Amino acid sequence: MDMCGAALMLTALSQAPVSVVQPIAGCGLAILCVFSHFYLKEVMNGLDWIAITLAGLGTIGVGVGGEEQKVDQIPLLNIPWLVLSIVILFVGTAQHLASYV
């Protein structure tokens, strides 16, 4: 699931500016916090709720204040190579750490 999310993130980055995509990714963490509070019954303090609210408002602000830009698109054939490189990097790092331990 994480690799599918990374592939979707790369697709989003190829179609939108980083200044728009990255705050939305941060808002995903805020949504995860709300989910874990209500579904997993985790306790959050007031500072956590303030941070979640600010992340949501910041994402809405970026969406409202952003303007459409014409950007060159990354060829779709480059995305699988990038995903494969990331997989090899993570698998290699995990194998190296496992042999080290």
> What general form does the structure show?
flat
Kindly estimate the percentage of residues that lie in beta strands according to DSSP. under 5%
The helix-and-strand class reads mainly alpha
The topology string of helices and strands comes to HHHH
Q: Which parts are unreliable, with pLDDT below 50 for 5 consecutive residues or more?
A: none
**Taking Cα atoms only, what radius of gyration do you get, to the nearest Å?**
18 Å
Average pLDDT rating = 75
Subunit structure: Homodimer.
InterPro entries: EmrE-like, Mg_trans_NIPA
Keywords: Cell membrane, Endosome, Ion transport, Magnesium, Membrane, Transmembrane, Transmembrane helix, Transport
Family: Belongs to the NIPA (TC 2.A.7) family.
Explain this structure.
The protein is mainly alpha-helical. 77% of the residues lie in helices and 0% in strands. It has a domain at 17-70. Helix 1 (2-15) packs antiparallel against helix 4 (78-100) and helix 2 (18-38) runs antiparallel to helix 3. The chain starts with a helix and ends with a helix.
